[in-house]
Design goal:
TIM Barrel, alpha/beta, 8-stranded parallel β-barrel, single chain, 8 strands
């Protein structure tokens, strides 16, 4: 492993970009100018997906129309009731989101209310699956032991989640190589993983993908690296 260089690593970086979910738009202080710039970066570098704040979904959808960049609805679960969350998910789907990120209700998990935990995940799954849209469940690994990471992932997968996402990146914890290897070892080909939280470089993203992650979330530092490398998407 070595640091990436351009143009010799352009092909490898291009493959990474296909697996990227750009999450700079989730900053709570993002202005419309920030969102526009992030959308332009996603198009310029041919990133696979972008994840905006809920309020910017219509703007991002319109801006990216005709591009190859797809839009993911970010997590809203923990600040809404179940009914409100389902309504927001349906709104996101109707706007054109290709996937839904759902935050686990950790209080239910820690209270061992596993049936209630799974019921909520399954309700969202029933809605998304009707549109053939994958559901990604965020487990916030920073609050969990290894045993809990495996258990909460099993509950989520059994309830219909397609992906397990490590963290929101806004709270305790970060995406780690250990957690990718842990989940792949526990679930093998059954699981798809989104590595998220503190992944600051292209080399970090590449390592996560090589370890078994299917998607990687990046923010501004990785885009700064792309600019400094002079990377030009094919």
């Amino acid at each position: 492993m070595r640091l990436f260089k351009c143009p010799e690593d352009n092909g490898k970086i291009g493959k990474i970009m296909e697996c990227i979910e750009y999450t700079a738009l989730l900053n709570i202080n993002s202005t419309q100018a920030d969102v526009k710039r992030s959308c332009e970066d996603a198009i310029r570098y041919k990133m696979g997906r972008i994840v905006p704040l809920q309020m910017y979904l219509p703007y991002v959808m319109e801006f990216l129309k005709g591009s190859s960049v797809k839009v993911v609805q970010g997590s809203t679960t923990d600040v809404y009731t179940k009914a409100e969350h389902l309504n927001l998910v349906e709104q996101g789907i109707k706007l054109g989101c290709c996937e839904i990120d759902m935050l686990s209700r950790l209080p239910l998990f820690f209270d061992k209310k596993y049936d209630e935990f799974q019921e909520e995940v399954h309700e969202v799954y029933k809605l998304t699956s009707g549109y053939h849209i994958p559901l990604k469940l965020i487990i916030e690994t920073g609050y969990l032991t290894d045993e809990e990471k495996i258990l909460i992932s099993r509950l989520g997968l059994d309830a219909g989640a397609t992906f397990i996402k490590t963290c929101t990146g806004m709270r305790k914890g970060r995406g780690t190589l250990h957690d990718i290897l842990l989940l792949k070892d526990a679930f093998g080909e059954r699981i798809k993983i989104k590595a998220s939280g503190g992944i600051a470089s292209l080399e970090d993203a590449y390592t996560m993908l090589q370890a078994g992650a299917d998607r990687v979330a990046i923010r501004g530092l990785a885009v700064k690296q792309l600019r400094e490398l002079g990377y030009v998407a094919a």
